[in-house]
Specification:
The complex is a heterodimer of chains A (489) and B (401). Chain A contains 13 helices and 22 strands. Chain A is an alpha+beta fold and 489 residues long. Chain A folds into two domains: 332 residues, Thiolase/Chalcone synthase (Peroxisomal Thiolase, Chain A, domain 1, 3-Layer(aba) Sandwich), CATH 3.40.47; 109 residues, OB fold (Dihydrolipoamide Acetyltransferase, E2P) (Beta Barrel). The longest helix of chain A is centred in the middle third of the chain and has 24 residues. The radius of gyration of chain A is 23 Å and the shape is globular. Chain A starts with a strand and ends with a helix. By secondary structure, chain B is of the alpha/beta class. Chain B is built from 15 helices and eleven strands. Chain B has a five-stranded mixed beta sheet. In chain B, strand 2, helix 2 and strand 3 form a beta-alpha-beta unit. The longest helix of chain B has 19 residues. The relative contact order of chain B is 0.20. The chains are: A alpha+beta (489), B alpha/beta (401). The interface between A and B is large, with 52 and 47 residues.
C-alpha cells in the first residue's frame, strides 16, 4: 500500500513586519542590512509560540477528520517553549487526542523539520494508524542580525500514513554531515553564524546535491521530471543554483516565501511542502530538501486523491490573513529585545498550580465544556450542576468540545488599564451558536480592525499567561474574528 | 412567611472618614476616624456595643485577613467580631450582619464598619490581582472598567442608541456627580467638570474614558444600629429605620447561559423586586426620594436606574439627559458625589452611601441638603462584573413611612 501524506495544513501568524522598518532602525549601525529591507516577515503575536502555531497548523490539516484514529503526534522545532515537558504532548492535548498515543519531539537542527517527517514516513511503512506530524518555529534572533530580517514565524502539519494518500512517498535520503554553519549552545538564546559565502559554496552547493543525487539514483527518477523543488534557504539563487547543477527544471524552483513570510526555521521545508501541495496537480513530483548538519531529501508524487481533499486555509490562506505591521518596536517588545517599562500591573504573579492544571486540563487546554444529557444545554466550563435555571440537574454533564465551534460577540471592550503585552486588551462575551458562552480574551485584533456586537468569532489556541519567574506558560483559547481569518479564501 | 426587616432596626449613629488619598494614614486610622464620629453621634459608650461586623475586600493591600484588625483598632472588649467580604458589597454586608443581629434579638446594639486602603499599590486604578487558581486559567484578562464598559456595547446594540448618545448621557452622569461632590467636604474629588472634558478624556476601556470611571481612594464608614425601642429609650427622635436589605448573587446564568444579553444586571432586578416588596414600596419612581447607586462607572449608573425600575428599559438615556437624576431633579442620584467623587474604598462604600441618606433625612447634609424632605432613600452596591456579581440593596427611611 502507498505510504505518504494523507492531508496537509499550514499556519502563518497574521502580522507581517515590514522589513523596511527593521532596516530604518539599524542601518546606522550596519548599512549592509539595507539590502535586506525588502518585503515582509511573518511575526508571531505575543501570545504565540511554536506549540500554539503547531496546533493551528494541525487543526488546519485535520479539519473534520476523526481524531481518534491518530496513533502518534510528532513535532519538530528548534524553538520549543519547553526544554523538559514534551511539546508534542501539549499539541496532542490541545487537539483533544486520546491518550493512547505516541508523542515525540524532534529538535536541535534546522533539518529537524524534514527529519521528523522522514521518521514519520518510515514508521508509516510499518502500517498502523496515521501519524500527525507538526513542525513550527518562532526563532529568537538578535536585533540587527540578518536572521531578524530573513526569518519568519510559521508552522506546517501533515497527516502521515498509508492508503488514500494525496502525495505518495517515492523515496527519501539523508546525508549526515557535521558541517557547522551556525550553532546555538546550551543556555544560549541566539545563533552564532559563520560566513555566508563558505556556507553556500561548501555547504549548500556540495552537501545538498549529494543528497539529491543519491535520492534520484535510488528512486530512478529523472531530474528533469521534477515539478516542484522546495529548498528553504533565504539567500537568493541558492535553490536555483542547486536546481541548475542537478538538472532540475528552472520552473520547478519553488518560491521560498522570502518576500511575504520569511524563512520559518526548521519548519520551512515543511511550510514550503504544504504550500507546494496547495498548488499541485495529480502526477506532480515534489522534491523537498533541507539543510542542517547534512541534508534530507524527500520525493513525493501527488495523487488523484488531492482533488477530494476538503478545502483548507493552508499556507496561502493564512498568508492572505494579513496585517502589515509597521511598528518594529512591537517586535522588539514581543521578543524581549528591549527593556520595556511594563508598569507595576505587570508584576502580578502568574504561578500555575500543576495539580490544578492537571485536574482542569481538558477545560484549560482542550476547551472541553459540558452538555447536559437531560436538557441539552451546553456550558463552559463543565460543572456537575447544569446552568440552565429550569434544569439544574446534577451529574448530567457530558464532555462537549468548544474549540472548533464559532461564536458571536455579545459585548466587548478594548481595555487600556489591565496589563497586556499588546494593549489595548480586547475581550468580550462570546456566545456559541449551538449554546454556551464565555467572557473570552480576543486575539489578533489588528489596530485597524472594527470589532462589533454580532461579529462571528472562532477560537485559537494561545498563550494565556507567561510566568517569567518560573519559566512556565499556560495556554488557553482566545477568540478571533472569523472574517479576517477567511480573507483571501 | 417571613415578615422582612422593615422598621425592626434603627440607625443609632453613623460616621464617615474623609475619603481620598490618605497617604499618611493606615486603615486603622481611618477606622478610628469613622468610629469616633459614629459613637459620638450614637451617644453611647463603646462598651454598649455587643457585636461588630467588619467589611473589607482587598485585605492583602492593608490589614490582612480576619476581623481582628477591627477589634484591635477599636480596642473592642472581646465581643464577637466577624469579617465579611463580598466584592464591592462588602460594606453593605457588614451593615446587613449588624442589622440582622439586632433584628434577631441576638444583641441590642451592633456595629458595622467598612474600610479600604487602595492607594498603596504604586499605581492608579484598582489593584491588579489574581482571581483564583482555576479562574486564572480561563477568565479573560479583564479589568473592572473593561468588564463594565461592555454594558455600553450591549446596551447600544439592544436599544439602538448611538455610541455618541451613550457617551453624552454617560458624560452627563459624571458631570452631575462632580457638581454634587464639589459640595461635599468629605468627598475625594471636589472639582467640577464639563461634558467636553469628559468626552475628550483619555480612553480607559472603550467606550469608558477617564471621567467615566470613579476615583480610587482610601476611606472608612461606620454605622451603629439598634432597635427602634432602644433608640427611643436612648433619647432619639425622628428615627431612620431600615426598610429593606436585599442581596442577589449571580448563579452562572449570565456568565454561562445564553439567556442574558449583557445589557443589564440580572441580580439588580431580582434584588430590587424583593427590596421594594420588603419595604412595601409599590411605585418606586414616585416613592423613592433619592438614590446612592454603585456608580463605579457612568454606564453602571445608567443601566442600574433601569434595573431598579425607575427608568423604563431603554429610557435611562432620556431621563439622564432630562436631568431627572440631578441634585435638583425628580430623584437625585449620588447627591453626595457618589463613587465618582468619593472613590471606591471597597469595604467602606456601602456604608458611606447609607451615611448620606442618614444625613439627608436628618437635614444635616449642609450645602447639598435636598430641599424636599426625603422619605425613602435607596442604596445599591454592585460587586464583581456584569456577568457575575453580587448586588446589594438597602432602603432606609423615616420610621413609620
Amino acid at each position: 500500500m502507498d505510504v505518504g501524506l494523507l492531508a496537509y495544513g499550514g499556519y502563518i501568524p497574521q502580522s507581517r513586519l515590514q522589513r523596511s522598518e527593521i532596516a530604518k532602525a539599524h542601518t546606522w549601525f550596519n548599512p549592509g542590512l539595507g539590502g535586506l529591507a525588502k518585503g515582509e516577515r511573518a511575526m508571531a503575536n505575543w501570545d504565540e509560540d511554536s506549540v500554539t502555531m503547531a496546533v493551528e497548523a494541525a487543526r488546519d490539516c485535520l479539519g473534520d477528520l476523526d481524531r481518534d484514529g491518530i496513533s502518534a503526534v510528532y513535532m519538530a522545532s528548534t524553538s520549543f517553549p519547553f526544554e523538559d515537558r514534551q511539546n508534542a504532548g501539549i499539541v496532542a492535548d490541545a487537539l483533544n487526542l486520546k491518550s493512547g498515543l505516541q508523542t515525540i519531539d524532534f529538535a536541535s537542527s534546522q533539518r529537524a523539520g524534514s527529519a521528523g517527517l522522514s521518521v514519520a514516513l518510515q514508521v508509516a511503512k510499518g502500517g498502523g494508524n496515521p501519524i500527525l506530524y507538526t513542525t513550527a518555529e518562532k526563532r529568537q534572533t538578535k536585533a540587527a542580525s540578518p536572521l531578524e530580517f530573513t526569518s519568519g514565524d510559521g508552522a506546517a502539519a501533515f497527516l502521515v500514513g498509508q492508503g488514500k494518500v494525496i502525495a505518495k512517498l517515492i523515496g527519501n535520503h539523508t546525508e549526515a554531515v557535521d558541517f557547522v554553519d551556525h550553532f546555538r549552545g546550551e543556555g544560549q538564546s541566539y545563533d552564532y553564524n559563520w560566513e555566508e559565502r563558505w556556507v553556500r559554496d561548501e555547504g549548500y552547493m556540495k552537501i545538498v546535491p549529494a543528497a539529491i543525487s543519491a535520492l534520484l539514483e535510488q528512486t530512478g527518477v529523472d531530474a528533469s521530471t521534477i515539478s516542484t523543488f522546495c529548498f528553504p534557504v533565504a539567500a537568493r539563487n541558492v535553490a536555483g543554483g542547486i536546481a541548475k547543477k542537478m538538472g532540475l527544471p528552472e520552473s520547478s524552483v519553488a518560491d521560498n516565501l522570502q518576500s511575504n513570510c520569511g524563512e520559518t526555521g526548521t519548519a520551512h521545508s515543511m511550510v514550503m511542502l504544504a504550500h507546494a501541495l496547495e498548488q499541485s496537480s495529480p502526477g506532480d513530483k515534489i522534491l523537498v530538501a533541507s539543510f542542517g548538519q547534512g541534508c534530507d531529501a524527500l520525493l513525493f508524487e501527488v495523487t488523484d486523491e488531492i482533488k477530494s481533499l476538503p478545502a483548507r486555509k493552508g499556507i496561502s490562506g493564512y498568508l492572505a490573513r494579513r496585517h502589515a505591521e509597521t511598528n518594529y518596536n512591537k517586535f522588539l517588545a514581543f521578543h524581549n529585545l528591549v527593556n520595556l517599562e511594563r508598569g507595576i500591573r505587570a508584576e502580578t504573579d502568574k504561578k500555575t498550580g500543576l495539580t490544578t492544571l492537571y485536574r482542569n486540563k481538558s477545560m484549560a487546554q482542550g476547551m472541553i465544556g459540558g452538555k447536559c444529557s437531560q436538557c441539552g444545554t451546553a456550558q463552559f466550563p463543565k460543572s456537575n450542576m447544569c446552568v440552565n435555571e429550569n434544569c439544574g440537574a446534577v451529574g448530567t454533564q457530558e464532555d462537549y468540545p468548544f474549540a472548533d465551534r464559532v461564536a458571536k460577540v455579545n459585548s466587548f471592550t478594548a481595555d487600556r488599564l489591565t496589563y497586556s503585552p499588546d494593549p489595548p486588551a480586547y475581550y468580550g462575551m462570546i456566545q456559541f451558536e449551538e449554546g454556551g458562552r464565555l467572557m473570552s480574551d480576543f486575539t489578533d485584533i489588528a489596530p485597524d480592525a472594527e470589532v462589533e456586537v454580532g461579529m462571528t468569532m472562532r477560537m485559537m489556541f494561545r498563550i494565556k499567561d507567561y510566568d517569567d519567574k518560573r519559566g512556565f506558560r499556560r495556554y488557553f483559547w482566545k477568540a478571533t474574528p472569523v472574517d479576517a481569518a477567511n480573507k483571501g479564501e | 412567611m417571613a415578615s422582612g426587616i422593615k422598621d425592626k432596626v434603627a440607625i443609632l449613629g453613623m460616621g464617615c472618614s474623609k475619603f481620598g488619598e490618605r497617604w499618611n494614614d493606615n486603615a486603622e486610622d481611618l477606622m478610628i476616624e469613622a468610629f469616633v464620629e459614629a459613637l459620638e453621634d450614637a451617644g453611647i459608650e463603646k462598651s454598649q456595643i455587643e457585636a461588630a461586623w467588619f467589611g473589607t475586600a482587598i485585605e492583602e493591600e492593608h490589614v490582612g485577613k480576619s476581623a481582628v484588625p477591627l477589634s484591635m483598632a477599636l480596642r473592642l472588649p472581646n465581643i464577637p467580631v466577624s469579617r465579611v467580604e463580598n466584592y464591592c458589597a462588602s460594606g453593605s454586608e457588614a451593615f446587613r450582619g449588624a442589622v440582622y443581629a439586632v433584628a434577631s434579638g441576638a444583641c441590642d446594639i451592633a456595629l458595622a464598619l467598612g474600610v479600604e486602603k487602595l492607594k498603596d499599590t504604586g499605581y492608579g486604578g484598582l489593584p491588579q490581582r489574581n482571581r483564583g487558581s482555576i479562574n486564572d486559567m480561563y477568565w479573560a484578562n479583564a479589568s473592572a472598567p473593561g468588564s463594565f464598559a461592555q454594558l455600553a456595547s450591549a446596551y447600544s446594540a439592544k436599544h439602538g442608541v448611538s455610541k455618541e448618545d451613550m457617551k453624552k448621557a454617560m458624560a452627563h452622569i459624571s458631570v452631575k456627580s462632580h457638581d454634587n461632590g464639589s459640595r461635599n467636604p468629605k468627598a475625594h474629588l471636589r472639582n467640577k467638570i464639563t461634558e467636553e472634558k469628559v468626552m475628550n478624556a483619555p480612553m480607559i476601556a472603550e467606550p469608558l474614558g477617564l471621567f467615566d470611571c470613579c476615583g480610587v481612594s482610601d476611606g472608612s464608614a461606620c454605622a451603629i444600629v439598634t432597635t427602634p425601642e432602644i433608640a427611643k429609650a436612648l433619647g432619639k427622635t425622628d428615627l431612620i429605620t431600615v426598610k429593606a436589605m436585599q442581596l442577589a448573587a449571580s448563579n452562572g446564568t449570565e456568565a454561562q447561559h445564553n439567556s442574558w444579553d449583557g445589557s443589564h444586571f440580572v441580580t439588580t432586578r431580582a434584588a430590587a423586586n424583593r427590596a421594594y416588596n420588603e419595604a412595601g414600596i409599590t411605585k418606586p419612581r414616585d416613592q423613592i426620594s433619592m438614590f446612592e447607586v454603585h456608580d463605579c462607572f457612568s454606564i453602571t449608573e445608567l443601566v442600574t436606574m433601569e434595573d431598579l425600575f425607575i427608568s423604563e428599559e431603554g429610557t435611562a438615556v432620556t431621563d439622564v439627559m432630562n436631568g431627572f437624576y440631578d441634585a435638583d431633579g425628580q430623584i437625585p442620584c449620588q447627591i453626595d458625589g457618589g463613587l465618582k467623587c468619593f472613590g471606591h474604598p471597597i469595604g467602606a462604600s456601602g456604608i458611606r452611601m447609607i451615611y448620606e441618606m442618614y444625613l439627608q433625612m436628618q437635614g444635616r447634609a449642609g450645602e447639598r441638603q435636598r430641599e424636599e424632605d426625603p422619605v425613602f432613600g435607596m442604596t445599591h452596591n454592585l460587586g464583581g462584573f456584569p456577568h457575575q456579581n453580587v448586588c446589594s440593596l438597602t432602603i432606609v427611611g423615616k420610621e413609620g413611612a
